Amino acid sequence: MNGWLLAAAVLLVAGLAPVLWTMAVGEPRTRLVAQNLSTVLACPVFLLAAQGFGRPSYTDLALVLAMLGPAGTLVYARFLGVLPRSRVVLGTAWTVVPATVLPLCVVAGPGRAMAKLLVIGVLVVAGNTVTSAGTDRHG
Amino acid sequence: MAWMVEVLGWWVALTALWWVLISTVQPLEVLVGAAAALVAALAVRAARKAVTRR
After folding, report:
1. What is the spatial distance between Cα B12 and Cα B18, in angstroms, rounded to a whole number?
2. Dihedral, CA atoms, A33, A47, A120, B22, nearest 10 degrees?
3. A138 has pLDDT over 60
4. How much is the ipTM here?
5. Nearest to residue A60, comparing CAs of A72, A42, A47?
């Protein structure tokens, strides 16, 4: 167990577990926001696991999730009829994702691996900035 | 001829993205990526035209 895996475990237990609970028992609008938040939290978990276990292929999981997560949220929002505005998702995307990607970039050193991490980070932040903007006007 | 410039721009960008995302840079992988990026660039141009024409 090294620092990276510890960070991933903290994200899973303190972040993803409550979000999954909310996804199971909340109101439909809350569940949609929780689904969105779960993808925002799962991406850094994959990136940290890639570094912690020493398996660079896990970053491909984060890349796929970075693209499919926001798209999935928008698909569910289509069914729900409204995309709820969410400051939680916006705040999490702009704090947790850079806080994981930047140390990983420092460890990776300049090169294609770092560029890949930055691409994944930008995709997650941009995609979830769009999905957290919402189509309704009430907080 | 503007469409050729646009397709070229997309092709360069998509090939660069592929080149960043593959694990090891080998000639065959770059070739496959360039071919896929060309098809994708043409598709992007078609999609953009379809959207803006509406």
Report:
1. 10
2. -140
3. no
4. 0.71
5. A47
